[in-house]
Amino acid sequence: MNTPAHSEPDTHIVKEIERLVSQYGQVPPPWVVLPDTHPYDICWRVGGGEFHTEVFHSWWKNLNFEESQRIEYFRNWPPPPRWLAWMIDVIWDLSRDECPEEFDYSVYFEQIESLGFGTQSQYQADLEDPHWCERF
Questions:
Q1: End-to-end CA distance of the chain
Q2: Burial of 46 (0-12, 13-18, 19+ CB in 10 A)
Q3: Is the pTM of this model over 0.85?
């Protein structure tokens, strides 16, 4: 469920933001709350994982961070390579109509590589690691 931009977050989301900020100092990214998951795992579309992403995005949009602050946030919470495209989407607030598989991330991967987060080939290798096939 996406919260419309003009409305206040639902009470459950507000309470969860408060809990996470109390525990971590910020709302952590997905790989912190469910560390051994793949970005395409069903848990991010239903249940607790979906709720966490709603909480994260509600919290994130209200921060109004500048690009440098967004990058710094991820320096504190470095992603596993399989989460690099998700991090790119969040840092640069990418809106795209096409499927993620069809979106050209190359210019963004160059930027995050220069920032020390990892490479597109590391992302691809982790994303396609056979280990994940065993779990789906």
A1: 24
A2: exposed
A3: yes
